[in-house]
Amino acid sequence: MGIKIVAKNKKAFHEYNIDATYEAGMVLSGPEVKSLRAGRANIRDGYVRIDAKGEAYMYNVHIALYSFATHNPNEPLRARKLLLHQREIKKLIGKLNEKGLALIPLKIYFKENGRAKVELGLARGKRQYDKRATLKEQQSKREIQRAMRHDR
């Protein structure tokens, strides 16, 4: 079966250079899990902060209300606690103190055991000319692939 990807942050790869990735669990309620299984999540504007207690929280991630939930409707944009090992959090705190680094969610997915996970990326913002260079590189790769396909 493998993993089932619920939401991807395609904008992140355009806006940032991803230096490293981390996998974290999320503290979710029942209706939120069901809404995720239905594929109703948006992580485009999401980001992660580590508070003073050393706990990681994910903000601005929209998980839609589950329509069949009878009790405890959750706020779609609430802060969600992330489950990371303490040594990972300490390493992230050290790296996030560097200028220009941010921790952003790249994708939300379900593993084979049914647990919802989020892949976090340690990101460095791109400049405008970097974005243009990346787009030109992608277009040239596409053109090379097309030319190779037509030569056969």
Judging by the overall fold, what is the CATH architecture?
Answer: Beta Barrel
The total count of strands amounts to 9
Count of helix runs: 4
Helix content: 25-40%
The main sheet orders its strands as 1-8-9-2-7-5-4
Fourth-tier CATH superfamily name: Small protein B
Radius of gyration: 18 Å
Low-confidence stretches: none
Helix/sheet category: alpha+beta
Morphology: globular
The major pleated sheet works out as: 7 strands, antiparallel
Overall mean pLDDT: 87
What share of the residues does DSSP label as strand, in percent? 25-35%
CATH topology: Small Protein B, Chain: A
How would you characterize the overall build of this protein?
The chain has helices spanning 10-15, 30-37, 86-96, 128-151, and strands at residues 4-8, 16-26, 41-42, 47-50, 56-59, 62-63, 80-83, 101-110, 116-125. It has 152 residues and is an alpha+beta fold. The strands form two sheets. It has a seven-stranded antiparallel beta sheet with strand order 1-8-9-2-7-5-4. The protein has a two-stranded antiparallel sheet with strand order 3-6. A hairpin with a 5-residue loop joins strand 4 and strand 5. The longest helix has 24 residues, at 128-151. The radius of gyration is 18 Å and the shape is globular.
